[in-house]
Design goal:
Keywords: Lyase. This is (-)-alpha-amorphene synthase. GO terms for molecular function: lyase activity. Its EC number is 4.2.3.162. The two termini are 25 Å apart. By secondary structure, the protein is mainly α. Helix 6 runs parallel beside helix 9, helix 7 runs antiparallel to helix 9 and helix 13 runs parallel beside helix 16. The protein is built from 16 helices and no strands.
Length: 336
Amino acid sequence: MAILSTTHEDITVGTLRGIPGSDLRDLIDTHLRMPFPFRTNPHEHRVTAGVEKWLRKTGLADESWVPEMIARTRPAQLASYNGPEMDSGLLQIVANQIAYQFVFDDRAEEVGRQGPGRLLPMLEESIAVLRDDASPSTPLGAALADLHRQVRERCTPAQAARWAVKSREYVHGLLYEAVAQADTAPLPTGLCTSIRSLTAGVEPFHPLCEAAQPCELSDAELHHPVMRRLARLSADAAVWIPDLYSAVKERQAGGMINLALAHQRAHRCSLPVAVMLAIRQINRTIDEFVGLFEEIRPRLSPSAVGYAEGMAGWIRGCCHWSRTVPRYADTAAAPA
Protein backbone atom coordinates (compact mmCIF):
# COMPACT_ATOMS: atom_id res chain seq x y z
CA MET A 1 0.00 0.00 0.00
CA ALA A 2 1.36 3.40 -0.94
CA ILE A 3 2.19 5.85 1.82
CA LEU A 4 -0.64 8.35 2.10
CA SER A 5 -0.19 12.03 2.73
CA THR A 6 -0.98 13.24 6.22
CA THR A 7 -1.91 16.72 5.08
CA HIS A 8 -5.46 17.70 4.23
CA GLU A 9 -4.85 19.40 0.90
CA ASP A 10 -5.08 16.12 -1.05
CA ILE A 11 -8.44 15.17 0.47
CA THR A 12 -10.55 16.49 -2.38
CA VAL A 13 -14.19 17.44 -2.34
CA GLY A 14 -14.84 14.27 -4.33
CA THR A 15 -13.51 12.20 -1.45
CA LEU A 16 -16.13 13.67 0.85
CA ARG A 17 -19.05 13.62 -1.59
CA GLY A 18 -20.79 10.96 -3.58
CA ILE A 19 -20.86 8.56 -0.63
CA PRO A 20 -24.15 6.68 -0.07
CA GLY A 21 -26.07 8.43 2.69
CA SER A 22 -23.56 11.29 2.85
CA ASP A 23 -23.21 11.16 6.63
CA LEU A 24 -20.10 10.81 8.73
CA ARG A 25 -20.69 7.12 9.47
CA ASP A 26 -20.91 6.35 5.74
CA LEU A 27 -17.66 8.23 5.21
CA ILE A 28 -15.94 6.10 7.86
CA ASP A 29 -17.44 2.84 6.58
CA THR A 30 -16.34 3.63 3.04
CA HIS A 31 -12.69 4.42 3.76
CA LEU A 32 -11.74 2.47 6.90
CA ARG A 33 -9.94 -0.78 6.08
CA MET A 34 -10.96 -3.78 8.20
CA PRO A 35 -9.20 -7.01 7.16
CA PHE A 36 -10.57 -9.03 10.08
CA PRO A 37 -14.03 -10.58 9.50
CA PHE A 38 -16.95 -9.83 11.82
CA ARG A 39 -17.56 -12.52 14.47
CA THR A 40 -19.58 -12.85 17.68
CA ASN A 41 -19.43 -15.08 20.75
CA PRO A 42 -22.32 -17.55 21.23
CA HIS A 43 -22.37 -16.74 24.99
CA GLU A 44 -23.19 -13.05 24.47
CA HIS A 45 -26.80 -13.24 25.68
CA ARG A 46 -25.85 -15.08 28.89
CA VAL A 47 -23.01 -12.66 29.58
CA THR A 48 -25.33 -9.67 29.06
CA ALA A 49 -27.48 -10.91 31.92
CA GLY A 50 -24.33 -11.59 33.95
CA VAL A 51 -23.17 -7.98 33.60
CA GLU A 52 -26.49 -6.65 34.87
CA LYS A 53 -26.36 -9.03 37.83
CA TRP A 54 -22.76 -8.07 38.64
CA LEU A 55 -23.51 -4.34 38.52
CA ARG A 56 -26.37 -4.85 40.97
CA LYS A 57 -24.22 -7.03 43.23
CA THR A 58 -21.41 -4.47 43.42
CA GLY A 59 -23.79 -1.53 43.93
CA LEU A 60 -22.75 0.26 40.75
CA ALA A 61 -26.28 -0.08 39.35
CA ASP A 62 -27.62 1.89 42.35
CA GLU A 63 -26.53 5.09 40.58
CA SER A 64 -29.54 6.17 38.52
CA TRP A 65 -27.47 7.02 35.43
CA VAL A 66 -25.58 3.72 35.24
CA PRO A 67 -28.30 1.38 33.83
CA GLU A 68 -29.08 3.83 31.03
CA MET A 69 -25.40 4.29 30.23
CA ILE A 70 -24.87 0.51 30.12
CA ALA A 71 -27.83 0.16 27.76
CA ARG A 72 -26.22 2.72 25.46
CA THR A 73 -22.73 1.16 25.58
CA ARG A 74 -23.56 -2.59 25.52
CA PRO A 75 -20.41 -3.94 27.25
CA ALA A 76 -21.33 -7.60 26.71
CA GLN A 77 -21.72 -6.98 22.99
CA LEU A 78 -18.29 -5.36 22.83
CA ALA A 79 -16.81 -8.32 24.73
CA SER A 80 -18.53 -10.74 22.35
CA TYR A 81 -17.18 -9.00 19.25
CA ASN A 82 -13.66 -8.79 20.72
CA GLY A 83 -13.48 -12.37 22.04
CA PRO A 84 -15.63 -14.59 19.81
CA GLU A 85 -13.79 -17.77 20.87
CA MET A 86 -13.60 -17.12 24.64
CA ASP A 87 -15.39 -19.49 26.99
CA SER A 88 -18.33 -18.05 28.90
CA GLY A 89 -16.39 -17.63 32.18
CA LEU A 90 -13.59 -15.59 30.69
CA LEU A 91 -15.98 -13.63 28.48
CA GLN A 92 -17.94 -12.69 31.62
CA ILE A 93 -14.80 -11.25 33.23
CA VAL A 94 -14.06 -9.25 30.08
CA ALA A 95 -17.63 -7.92 29.90
CA ASN A 96 -17.66 -7.03 33.61
CA GLN A 97 -14.41 -5.16 33.22
CA ILE A 98 -15.67 -3.26 30.17
CA ALA A 99 -18.78 -2.25 32.12
CA TYR A 100 -16.66 -1.18 35.09
CA GLN A 101 -14.36 0.92 32.91
CA PHE A 102 -17.31 2.67 31.26
CA VAL A 103 -18.68 3.59 34.69
CA PHE A 104 -15.26 4.58 36.04
CA ASP A 105 -14.36 6.61 32.96
CA ASP A 106 -17.64 8.53 32.87
CA ARG A 107 -17.41 9.28 36.59
CA ALA A 108 -13.76 10.36 36.27
CA GLU A 109 -14.64 12.66 33.37
CA GLU A 110 -17.40 14.30 35.39
CA VAL A 111 -15.22 14.77 38.48
CA GLY A 112 -12.14 15.77 36.49
CA ARG A 113 -13.97 18.64 34.77
CA GLN A 114 -14.29 20.26 38.20
CA GLY A 115 -10.50 20.14 38.58
CA PRO A 116 -7.86 17.40 38.24
CA GLY A 117 -7.19 17.48 41.98
CA ARG A 118 -10.73 16.32 42.72
CA LEU A 119 -9.87 13.02 41.03
CA LEU A 120 -7.12 12.12 43.49
CA PRO A 121 -9.20 10.30 46.16
CA MET A 122 -10.93 8.23 43.50
CA LEU A 123 -7.67 7.31 41.77
CA GLU A 124 -5.82 6.73 45.03
CA GLU A 125 -8.36 4.10 46.07
CA SER A 126 -8.00 2.30 42.73
CA ILE A 127 -4.21 2.22 42.92
CA ALA A 128 -4.34 0.97 46.51
CA VAL A 129 -6.67 -1.86 45.50
CA LEU A 130 -4.53 -2.85 42.50
CA ARG A 131 -1.10 -2.44 44.09
CA ASP A 132 -1.60 -3.18 47.79
CA ASP A 133 -4.80 -5.26 47.78
CA ALA A 134 -6.29 -2.61 50.08
CA SER A 135 -9.89 -2.76 51.27
CA PRO A 136 -12.16 -0.50 49.19
CA SER A 137 -14.41 2.17 50.68
CA THR A 138 -16.66 2.98 47.69
CA PRO A 139 -18.78 0.90 45.27
CA LEU A 140 -16.29 1.65 42.47
CA GLY A 141 -13.44 0.39 44.64
CA ALA A 142 -15.44 -2.69 45.62
CA ALA A 143 -16.17 -3.46 41.96
CA LEU A 144 -12.47 -3.15 41.10
CA ALA A 145 -11.51 -5.41 44.01
CA ASP A 146 -14.00 -8.01 42.81
CA LEU A 147 -12.63 -7.79 39.28
CA HIS A 148 -9.12 -8.26 40.66
CA ARG A 149 -10.35 -11.38 42.49
CA GLN A 150 -11.93 -12.77 39.32
CA VAL A 151 -8.75 -12.21 37.33
CA ARG A 152 -6.54 -13.88 39.94
CA GLU A 153 -8.84 -16.88 40.11
CA ARG A 154 -8.84 -17.37 36.34
CA CYS A 155 -5.33 -16.27 35.29
CA THR A 156 -1.83 -17.39 36.19
CA PRO A 157 -0.01 -15.23 38.78
CA ALA A 158 2.12 -13.66 36.02
CA GLN A 159 -0.92 -12.85 33.88
CA ALA A 160 -2.78 -11.37 36.87
CA ALA A 161 0.26 -9.24 37.71
CA ARG A 162 0.41 -7.91 34.16
CA TRP A 163 -3.31 -7.17 34.32
CA ALA A 164 -2.82 -5.14 37.51
CA VAL A 165 0.09 -3.16 36.06
CA LYS A 166 -1.82 -2.28 32.88
CA SER A 167 -4.90 -1.39 34.94
CA ARG A 168 -2.83 1.04 37.03
CA GLU A 169 -1.61 2.68 33.83
CA TYR A 170 -5.24 3.15 32.81
CA VAL A 171 -6.03 4.81 36.16
CA HIS A 172 -3.06 7.17 35.83
CA GLY A 173 -4.14 8.00 32.27
CA LEU A 174 -7.41 9.46 33.53
CA LEU A 175 -5.47 11.96 35.63
CA TYR A 176 -3.38 12.98 32.61
CA GLU A 177 -6.62 13.45 30.66
CA ALA A 178 -8.10 15.68 33.37
CA VAL A 179 -4.96 17.84 33.42
CA ALA A 180 -5.04 18.16 29.62
CA GLN A 181 -8.74 19.08 29.65
CA ALA A 182 -8.10 21.79 32.25
CA ASP A 183 -5.24 23.38 30.26
CA THR A 184 -6.23 26.16 27.88
CA ALA A 185 -3.15 25.67 25.67
CA PRO A 186 -3.62 23.70 22.41
CA LEU A 187 -2.88 19.99 22.89
CA PRO A 188 -0.29 18.56 20.45
CA THR A 189 -1.47 15.54 18.47
CA GLY A 190 1.32 13.33 19.81
CA LEU A 191 0.45 14.10 23.41
CA CYS A 192 -3.22 13.52 22.68
CA THR A 193 -2.56 10.04 21.27
CA SER A 194 -0.23 9.21 24.15
CA ILE A 195 -2.92 10.03 26.70
CA ARG A 196 -5.54 8.26 24.59
CA SER A 197 -3.54 5.03 24.62
CA LEU A 198 -3.75 5.03 28.41
CA THR A 199 -7.36 6.14 28.86
CA ALA A 200 -8.53 3.60 26.28
CA GLY A 201 -8.00 0.84 28.82
CA VAL A 202 -7.35 -1.72 26.05
CA GLU A 203 -4.03 -3.10 27.26
CA PRO A 204 -5.43 -4.48 30.57
CA PHE A 205 -7.37 -6.93 28.38
CA HIS A 206 -4.27 -8.32 26.68
CA PRO A 207 -3.44 -10.61 29.65
CA LEU A 208 -7.00 -11.93 29.38
CA CYS A 209 -6.36 -12.69 25.71
CA GLU A 210 -3.33 -14.68 26.89
CA ALA A 211 -5.43 -16.45 29.55
CA ALA A 212 -7.73 -17.70 26.77
CA GLN A 213 -4.85 -19.74 25.31
CA PRO A 214 -3.92 -23.33 26.26
CA CYS A 215 -0.53 -22.31 27.67
CA GLU A 216 1.11 -19.25 29.17
CA LEU A 217 3.44 -17.48 26.75
CA SER A 218 7.17 -17.72 27.30
CA ASP A 219 9.05 -14.56 28.23
CA ALA A 220 10.86 -14.74 24.89
CA GLU A 221 7.57 -14.63 23.00
CA LEU A 222 5.78 -12.16 25.24
CA HIS A 223 8.64 -9.65 25.27
CA HIS A 224 9.79 -10.12 21.68
CA PRO A 225 10.12 -6.67 20.04
CA VAL A 226 7.65 -7.60 17.31
CA MET A 227 5.10 -8.92 19.81
CA ARG A 228 5.43 -5.77 21.89
CA ARG A 229 4.89 -3.70 18.75
CA LEU A 230 1.80 -5.74 17.90
CA ALA A 231 0.42 -4.97 21.36
CA ARG A 232 0.96 -1.24 20.83
CA LEU A 233 -0.60 -1.28 17.35
CA SER A 234 -3.58 -3.28 18.59
CA ALA A 235 -4.29 -0.90 21.46
CA ASP A 236 -3.95 2.18 19.25
CA ALA A 237 -6.16 0.92 16.42
CA ALA A 238 -8.74 -0.47 18.85
CA VAL A 239 -9.27 2.94 20.49
CA TRP A 240 -8.72 5.21 17.49
CA ILE A 241 -11.55 3.53 15.58
CA PRO A 242 -14.15 4.44 18.25
CA ASP A 243 -12.68 7.95 18.19
CA LEU A 244 -13.95 8.27 14.62
CA TYR A 245 -17.50 7.42 15.62
CA SER A 246 -17.42 9.39 18.88
CA ALA A 247 -15.94 12.59 17.44
CA VAL A 248 -19.32 14.32 17.16
CA LYS A 249 -20.25 13.40 20.72
CA GLU A 250 -16.84 14.44 22.07
CA ARG A 251 -16.86 17.75 20.21
CA GLN A 252 -20.28 18.60 21.62
CA ALA A 253 -19.03 17.77 25.13
CA GLY A 254 -15.81 19.77 24.74
CA GLY A 255 -13.59 16.69 24.73
CA MET A 256 -9.93 17.00 23.83
CA ILE A 257 -8.58 13.44 23.87
CA ASN A 258 -9.81 12.15 20.52
CA LEU A 259 -7.75 11.33 17.44
CA ALA A 260 -10.09 12.96 14.91
CA LEU A 261 -10.45 16.13 16.98
CA ALA A 262 -6.66 16.24 17.42
CA HIS A 263 -6.27 16.29 13.63
CA GLN A 264 -8.95 18.97 13.36
CA ARG A 265 -7.06 21.21 15.79
CA ALA A 266 -3.69 20.54 14.15
CA HIS A 267 -4.84 21.20 10.57
CA ARG A 268 -7.66 23.67 11.28
CA CYS A 269 -9.93 21.74 8.95
CA SER A 270 -13.53 20.54 8.93
CA LEU A 271 -14.51 17.48 10.96
CA PRO A 272 -15.01 15.25 7.87
CA VAL A 273 -11.49 16.10 6.65
CA ALA A 274 -10.11 15.46 10.14
CA VAL A 275 -11.88 12.10 10.21
CA MET A 276 -10.31 11.20 6.86
CA LEU A 277 -6.86 12.08 8.21
CA ALA A 278 -7.51 9.90 11.24
CA ILE A 279 -8.73 7.04 9.02
CA ARG A 280 -5.50 7.15 7.04
CA GLN A 281 -3.49 6.94 10.26
CA ILE A 282 -5.60 3.99 11.45
CA ASN A 283 -5.32 2.19 8.10
CA ARG A 284 -1.52 2.45 8.24
CA THR A 285 -1.58 1.11 11.81
CA ILE A 286 -3.71 -1.87 10.83
CA ASP A 287 -1.56 -2.57 7.76
CA GLU A 288 1.54 -2.59 9.96
CA PHE A 289 -0.13 -4.97 12.41
CA VAL A 290 -1.10 -7.39 9.64
CA GLY A 291 2.37 -7.28 8.07
CA LEU A 292 4.23 -7.84 11.34
CA PHE A 293 1.91 -10.66 12.38
CA GLU A 294 2.41 -12.44 9.07
CA GLU A 295 6.17 -12.01 9.45
CA ILE A 296 6.44 -13.45 12.96
CA ARG A 297 3.62 -16.00 12.88
CA PRO A 298 5.71 -18.97 11.65
CA ARG A 299 8.05 -18.56 14.63
CA LEU A 300 5.32 -18.46 17.28
CA SER A 301 3.84 -21.23 19.40
CA PRO A 302 0.11 -21.97 18.95
CA SER A 303 -0.65 -20.07 22.19
CA ALA A 304 1.32 -17.04 21.01
CA VAL A 305 -0.55 -17.11 17.68
CA GLY A 306 -3.84 -17.19 19.58
CA TYR A 307 -2.68 -14.32 21.79
CA ALA A 308 -1.87 -12.15 18.75
CA GLU A 309 -5.19 -13.12 17.16
CA GLY A 310 -6.87 -12.00 20.39
CA MET A 311 -5.22 -8.59 20.04
CA ALA A 312 -6.43 -8.42 16.43
CA GLY A 313 -9.88 -9.25 17.75
CA TRP A 314 -9.92 -5.99 19.68
CA ILE A 315 -9.37 -4.06 16.46
CA ARG A 316 -12.18 -5.91 14.71
CA GLY A 317 -14.53 -5.87 17.69
CA CYS A 318 -14.19 -2.17 18.46
CA CYS A 319 -14.89 -1.38 14.81
CA HIS A 320 -18.13 -3.32 14.53
CA TRP A 321 -19.30 -2.27 18.00
CA SER A 322 -18.66 1.44 17.30
CA ARG A 323 -20.73 1.36 14.11
CA THR A 324 -23.96 0.38 15.85
CA VAL A 325 -23.72 1.23 19.55
CA PRO A 326 -26.34 3.81 20.67
CA ARG A 327 -23.63 5.82 22.48
CA TYR A 328 -22.33 7.06 19.11
CA ALA A 329 -25.64 7.45 17.28
CA ASP A 330 -24.90 11.13 16.60
CA THR A 331 -22.40 10.08 13.95
CA ALA A 332 -25.17 9.04 11.56
CA ALA A 333 -26.72 12.52 11.83
CA ALA A 334 -23.50 14.42 11.02
CA PRO A 335 -23.08 15.38 7.35
CA ALA A 336 -19.97 14.33 5.47
